[in-house]
Amino acid sequence: MIIVPHSLHSYSVFRFINKLSEADTSKDLVIDFSQNTFMDPCSMLVLSSELAFCKKKFYNVHLKNYDHLGYPLHMNFFHSLGLSELSNANAHPNYIPIMIRSCKDIIKDAADRSMLYQEYLTNHFVKQFTEILSNHLNEVSSEITEYCIREMLRNILEHSDSPQLGICAQYFPTKGQIQISIRDIGVGLTDSLKLNPKLKISSPFDAIKYATEPGISGKVYSGMKNKPTGEWVNSGWGIAMTKSICTLGGSFLIASDNLSAYYCTPSIWNDGAPIYTKSNFSGTVISMNIPVRFNEKLKDLLNHFNNNRPIKGLRPSPKSLQL
């Protein structure tokens, strides 16, 4: 039996799921929630996905002592595990329950509207989230939040080869932040970035380091023959821009290929260096804690990051600068 700890957060859930990978697959897997009182959206998204994988490896997976967990019930945590009778997810101004969408369906929905999927993400899919949470966002923060979600979803559709994606969100009034968590079950950062012959990647650490640097992409690189063009061309700026935005008062987590990196706002207690955690999981996870009150406009922030970019790497595409 594996006991879920008192609380699970984006920066601690990866240590917990190591226990799942170490469990004996010849026996039933029993998950006991009796001690748990809180899981944030990221931990629910990660744990529900990992438990879904466990259901394929173990003969039986049993959940017990979870009747007191009202918040995960509302967030679709149990429903996403196939427990359809445990669903109480409704539209709410403070949270968006776990939503699982087929990547092919998103691209098809865009094609049915005669739109590029990037445009569809911007004008339809992403706006569902910011409209629900709009009571907590000023105009500037709403635009910034839309940008961050769009760029992370674009990465999944452009690089992951994932059949589906999962997303959920929660407004935390005491923090003045919105946490938005996204997960795919695709190839991971390492295999995606190895498509770039100019990158030397020998570990998940290298992959995360490159992925969070501006101007680094697996599909487009300097000196490439027949380099693609256009306002939506991939330029390796989405993750770097989003990380920089989130750490202006919030935090950013990226996890892939058995390693997670947690970045928070530099302060007198830390220098902003990432905290790494090894873990056994597949796919890629992004969790963004975005402040709900920004004063500086998105274009100004993006221009600042662009003007301070390193000389190496690709220039940002027009849409990466919100042009």
Q: Element order, helices and strands?
A: EEHEEHEHEHHHEEHHHEEEEH
The radius of gyration over CA amounts to 19 Å
Q: Under CATH, the topology of the largest domain is which?
A: Heat Shock Protein 90
- Write down the overall mean pLDDT: 86
β-sheet strand percentage: 15-25%
The tally of domains stands at 2
Query: With helices defined by DSSP (H or I, 4 residues minimum), what is the helix count?
Result: 10
Biggest sheet overview: 7 strands, antiparallel
Q: In one word, what is the shape?
A: globular
Low-confidence stretches: none
Strand order of the largest sheet: 6-7-8-12-9-10-11
CATH class of the largest domain: Alpha Beta
The total beta strand count reads 12
CATH homologous group name of the largest domain: Histidine kinase-like ATPase, C-terminal domain
